[in-house]
Amino acid sequence: MDFDFTDDQESLRDAVRRWVDKAFGFERRHGLAKAGGHTRAVWGELADLGLAGLVVPEAHGGMGFGAVEAMVVAEELGRGIVNAPYAAAALMAPVLLTEAPAAVQAEWLPAMASGEALVVPALHERASRHRWQRVAVRATPAGTGWVLDGAKCVVPAGDEADAFIVSARHAGGDDAEAGLGLFLVKRADARVVGYATQDGARAADLHLAATPAVLLHAEGAATLARAIDVGSAAVCAEGVGLMDRLVGITVEYMNTRKQFGTTLASFQALRHRIADVKMHLELGRSMSFYATLKLGEPAPQRQRAVAQARVQLGHSLRFVGQQCIQLHGGIGCTDEYVASHCFKRLTMLEMTLGDTLHHLGEVSARMQDTAGVFA
Amino acid sequence: MDLNFTPEELAFRHEVRDWVHQNLPADIAHKVRHALRLSKEDHQRWARILGAKGWLGWGWAKQFGGPGWNGVQKHLFEEELALACAPRVVPFGPVMVAPVIMAFGTPEQQQRFLPGIASGEVWWSQGYSEPGSGSDLASLKCRAERKGDTYVVNGQKTWTTLGQYGDWIFCLVRTSTEGKPQTGISFLLIDMKSPGITVRPIILMDGEHEVNEVWFDNVVVPADNLIGEENKGWTYAKHLLAHERTNIADVNRAKRELERLKRIAKAEGVYDDVRFRDQIALLEVDIVALEMLVLRVLSAEKAGKQSLDIAGLLKIRGSEIQQRYSELMMQAAGPLARAHIFEAMEAGWQGDLAFPGSILPLAGTFFNMRKTTIYGGSNEVQRNIVAQTVLGS
Lengths: 375, 393
Prior knowledge:
The structure holds 2 protein chains of 2 kinds. Chain A is α+β, with helices and mostly antiparallel strands. Helix content of chain A is about 50%, strand content about 15%. Chain A has 11 helices and 9 strands. Chain A has helices at about 5-25, 25-35, 40-50, 65-80, 85-95, 100-115, 220-255, 270-295, 300-330, 340-350, 355-365, and strands at about 120, 140, 145-155, 165-170, 180-185, 190-195, 200-215, 260, 260-265. In chain A, the strands form 2 sheets. In chain A, strands 1, 2, 3, 4, 5, 6 and 7 form a 7-stranded mixed β-sheet that branches. In chain A, a hairpin with a 2-residue loop joins strand 8 (about 260) and strand 9. In chain A, helix 4 packs parallel to helix 7 (about 220-255). The relative contact order of chain A is 0.11. Chain B is of the alpha+beta class. In chain B, the strands form 2 sheets. Chain B has a 4-stranded mixed β-sheet with strand order 1-4-5-8. Chain B is globular. Classes of the chains: A alpha+beta, B alpha+beta.
């Protein structure tokens, strides 16, 4: 048991952090967000660092790294408030392709790893809320292929992507896991309506009407569940990096801002608040480690661990975000100050791939007689 | 990064598990499992069993007769004992005073005091708090005046846990009123059979006699019983506080009590009530998160790193969780929890009740647990310490 990073992992962290310091300062972040959240150029820069292909097998031109490296990168992108679809495109999409026919993998994975193709999962629907099993998009065989009908909402970086991996139902009732397939849809074949997101990124609705699609996996529920857990672990890690950044900014502010003739840091009410913020940050970091280190476990243990982590992170993201704004006072509420950007991103992360109440329900439903890190 | 214990650590866990399984008396485990009253004899019997195995001082280095375990081994040992429903070892001897004697005592003091602690023969108590000195411990007034080869002690200590059984007490006493309050404090070992000592019970709100007042009226203590240097006691006490930080989180007991909470909730029909069950789920998340925090601290210590700045969080979180599970158990019992039958805390009590007697200790345990966020440095004092670390100011 150890929670140390290898030298290679530390080098990876340094590389991402150097890029953030050099190329993704707050001015750029703010400018991109104001301009609508388009980040395809940023994606290209991340791909140049090798991050787009971080977990893509080396045989397909990726770096073939594992879950801990993915976590390290997510933490650093979180710290940088980078509004790129890292979890969706770099981590989840490759998982969703693992069961795809070899030819499809060979066609897409190298382009994804190089950043040439941006491929994102399109999973969420109007009625599904946080239940990924609730899929109304229909898949129908047509000739040698398939066509899809229905709509997906708030697809990450939707109008910047080149293709989508779409969950669609070819059999079974609304919430059934059986009959849930995974399909690849090219951007040009769908009607895509893009918009900004609250946290300064990009998303889109995907309208599918007899849209041609390539079947990746006819029974994709297990793969989908794994991809969502991988994405959830990345949400945790990104949140930890963001919280780290925001807490650092807040501590600095408390030590410099003066009211009543003395620094904010001298008031016990605020000192206790920052102690509670630290508690939430470290519990969150602990559970982010936990989620990542449990990704390789069999599905029931993995899902339980990830849900537990998301509950803790949900509480942490909310508490740290809200209290750090409060500790700043009025300046924390302004658009031009970095803290509000951290806060909005933290708030949106909490609602990504299942919110806290959803995950609490998962923990509750999966409870066993014994519990604990090794249960 | 690796969440798994090594094969050696797992083998160690099984060795401890097997031993506890064979040596923990069933009647004592029964009392712990059902939160029944433990007698002095219960505590001592278990302490002597551990002592005979050389495990009562489980945190001790080999040179002092301990097993010389690392932090992970200590954690595994504590976990196995907790999960097997062993009583918490009364910490004042083996966990609290012994490390101070090892670090700052003379070889003669070590030879004199450590064997009795290691074997479980000598019961130690702690004399820190005073009526006027709670969180502000350094303001303590209990006075020790040097007279020749002795100190004469006058004053009062309070909240002395299980002091009614104490053979010896380690005290912080004031030996100087000059300079800062912290610089005039000494660390003194006092035989509780000395003339002039009076121990009076304080009954806590659960009706139990757990803590005491200890009065010192011209108590003569040989100067040989001073640990280290006069007026340096505060430093030694801080060493003691720093010594056992993962243990204070008591996450292993929390895991055991979570299992018990689920059993009670099932028996009382609220386990499948979503509103109640979600509260258990929240607690389960809190406990896993605390365990991960503990493991991170242990891992840092194992790697020989400066202990993480998160260690101060453990007491806060651990104590909050203890209160929470005791509260949920009481709530699970619902209106039945209102019944109060003092005798029901004794093992073997047979009452004529229309509901299980196992309900009866729940409210008392909840009341008792209010102490956890107050003792050992109140959680507000702990927050002051955490804030100091975070803010650096």
